[in-house]
């Protein structure tokens, strides 16, 4: 009897699978779509996106990372492009749109090579060679600066905020960002160290953008623990306690039998005595400001008020650590453990009304290595947009201060790298040459998008930019969107951290190569079912 061979399935019924060119084309398309979503936000005249939450909340922004984090993306390849924006935001704090647009352009150029029957392995190998060479060229284009070069730092901040809602007060906000970064920077052995965690941005509705300010110290979003306490303390000596100021309850269930009024009074007197002992320890140590991570008993608040002490209670652990760093106060567990050497110092601790809330300002610290920025504005959406713009500016300033190297923007750096990469490609043998040239053309997609979003003729700008970069001493030539001319961006003050460009090229290339190397997409049963349901819903909507 003949053996009957039956096909054997390795996946359960209802699952989906895309292989070979189908999988590749599908993934490339998903990546390109994500890039197209935010492409129009690139540049100083980029458009905004309105993001509507399912709750009805509305956010208006042109920040690439924010847009991609908020929108619902289910396609796995598209999620890889979103990861490019997230990595860029974490590493530099800005340039997310540039990175994603570049990734989209790399995928688009790869698709063209696939149509010419260039093998995927050849494309990915060429892209890796091009990435390495592009970073090498980029480092040759960098200009060194120091933290003392405030003019360049201001230009870096302004370049980051141009085209965002904060632009109308860009001079003031750029100065605030630069001052904040300089305050928070520590220098040791010629190496600058600064963290975003040391710069706190607080937003409050009300007032105008011009009311925004920087505090050389800390803003704590808490008011005095008691209205009977002084509102302002000069020459503050600050005690930080992690434990509560109250009489502790016993750890086990216990009952106290009181047989007479005298016993009751003795019990209350003893409790008051224990609290008074804690407050005396605080005041004898010389503290006139107490920051407590936990609660403070009402009787203890009364004693602190009588002693003229300003107190905050229920302050978060995160804030406690910041106050300690800013003022130099040592964090102590219990009030009875406090010593005079544990106290921190500040010129002023004051409660002020901001909008309809009260906040505590800790100012005039000797060497805070931390700064707070208060952002004011008419609406919630506006102050949130300004906060994101300031956050981006601070991110790029930190990158510049740490690395000490800048390059020019407005498409100038991308065009110069593209020019030199094309020359380098001619030295290569084999089909990798085509991939390196495609990489160079993808870099030109950045100035192309800037021109298009600015309402300029994309083809004319690109031709003129290429011609400008073929001349001597032309590495800084970029697009002046105000007059549509090609000008020196270093002289124009359009500068960015070199690390921003470096990270964008690396992230975009890595994600594109990763997507191109996928030749098989296997969807599980649940995913296939959800995709089928989504297709049926769309079909039903089309019939309506």
TrEMBL record:
Alphabetized Pfam families for the sequence: Cpn60_TCP1
Keyword list, A-Z: ATP-binding, Chaperone, Nucleotide-binding
SUPFAM superfamilies: GroEL apical domain-like, GroEL equatorial domain-like, GroEL-intermediate domain like
Keyword Chaperone: yes
Secreted among keywords: no
Molecular functions per Gene Ontology: ATP binding; ATP hydrolysis activity; ATP-dependent protein folding chaperone; unfolded protein binding
PANTHER family named in the record: CHAPERONIN (PTHR11353)
Family label: Belongs to the TCP-1 chaperonin family.
Name of the protein: Thermosome subunit alpha
Taxonomy of the source species: Archaea, Methanobacteriati, Methanobacteriota, Stenosarchaea group, Candidatus Methanofastidiosia
Chain's gene name: thsA
């Amino acid at each position: 009897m003949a053996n009957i061979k039956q096909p054997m399935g390795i996946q359960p019924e209802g699952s989906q699978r895309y292989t070979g060119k189908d999988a590749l084309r599908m993934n490339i398309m998903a990546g390109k779509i994500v890039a197209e979503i935010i492409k129009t936000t690139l540049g100083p005249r980029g458009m905004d996106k309105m993001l509507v939450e399912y709750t009805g909340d509305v956010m208006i922004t042109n920040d690439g990372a924010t847009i991609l984090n908020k929108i619902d993306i289910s396609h796995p390849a598209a999620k890889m492009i979103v990861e490019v924006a997230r990595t860029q935001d974490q590493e530099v704090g800005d340039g997310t749109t540039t990175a994603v647009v570049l990734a989209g352009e790399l995928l688009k150029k790869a698709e063209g090579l696939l149509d010419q029957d260039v093998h995927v392995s050849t494309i990915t190998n060429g892209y890796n060679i091009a990435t390495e060479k592009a970073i090498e060229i980029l480092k040759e284009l960098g200009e060194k600066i120091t933290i003392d070069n405030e003019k360049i730092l201001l230009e870096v901040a302004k370049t980051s905020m141009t085209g965002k809602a904060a632009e109308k007060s860009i001079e003031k906000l750029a100065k605030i960002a630069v001052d904040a970064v300089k305050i928070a920077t520590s220098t040791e052995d010629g190496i600058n160290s600064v963290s975003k965690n040391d710069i706190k941005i607080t937003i409050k509705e009300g007032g105008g953008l011009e009311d925004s300010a920087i505090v050389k110290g800390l803003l704590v979003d808490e008011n005095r623990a008691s209205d009977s306490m002084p509102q302002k303390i000069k020459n503050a000596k600050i005690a930080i306690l992690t434990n509560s100021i109250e009489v502790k309850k016993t750890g086990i269930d216990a009952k106290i039998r009181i047989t007479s009024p005298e016993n009751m009074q003795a019990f209350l007197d003893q409790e008051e005595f224990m609290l008074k002992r804690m407050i005396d320890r605080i005041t004898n140590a010389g503290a006139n400001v107490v920051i407590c991570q936990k609660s403070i008993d009402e009787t203890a608040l009364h004693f602190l008020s009588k002693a003229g002490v300003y107190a905050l209670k229920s302050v978060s652990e995160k804030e406690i650590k910041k106050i300690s760093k800013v003022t130099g106060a040592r964090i102590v567990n219990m009030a009875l453990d406090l010593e005079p050497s544990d106290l921190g110092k500040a010129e002023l601790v004051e409660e002020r009304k901001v909008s309809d809330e009260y906040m505590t300002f800790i100012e005039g610290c000797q060497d805070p290595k931390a700064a707070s920025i208060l952002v004011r504005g008419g609406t919630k959406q506006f102050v949130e947009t300004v906060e994101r713009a300031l956050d981006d500016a601070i991110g790029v300033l930190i990158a510049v201060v740490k690395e000490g190297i800048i390059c020019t923007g407005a498409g100038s750096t991308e065009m110069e790298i593209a020019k030199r990469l094309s020359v380098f490609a001619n030295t290569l043998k084999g089909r990798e040459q085509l991939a390196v040239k495609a990489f160079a053309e993808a870099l030109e997609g950045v100035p192309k998008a800037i021109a298009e979003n600015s309402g300029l003729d994309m083809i004319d700008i690109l031709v003129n930019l290429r011609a400008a970069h073929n001349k001597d001493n032309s590495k800084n030539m970029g697009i002046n969107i105000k007059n549509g001319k090609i000008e020196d961006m270093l002289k124009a003050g359009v500068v960015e951290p070199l690390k921003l460009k470096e990270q964008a090229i690396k992230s975009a290339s890595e994600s594109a190569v990763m997507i191109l190397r996928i030749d098989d997409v296997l969807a599980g049963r649940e995913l296939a079912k959800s995709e089928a349901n989504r297709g049926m819903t769309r079909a039903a909507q089309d019939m309506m």
